[in-house]
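Handout, section B. The chain below has 100 residues.
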Amino acid sequence: ILFQPLSRYPPLINDISFWLPSETYSQNDFYDLVRTIGGDLIEKVVLLDEFAHPKTKKVSHCYRIIYRHPERTLTQDEVHHIHQAIEESAVRELGVEGRF
């Protein structure tokens, strides 16, 4: 049995980081938000880094979002609009403070 890749089209990878709100925050809410906006173009969302500022005690998360279209190669311009919408929605709906 030979391995067959799921897609021959290359992924586009963008990172997003933000300070978490002081009240409750759920990673699942962020994952849902990304999948709602990006739809089938989102292949994977991974928490890359969690950082706590030593003086302010604020916590920051950095996520890697992997975009891939199953039938064609995506351009960075196409993905930029989706990524920007994710950033704006995260600030508006989850109350995070963007670091982008």
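Note. Residues 76-94 form the longest helix (19 residues). Compare this with the example in section A.
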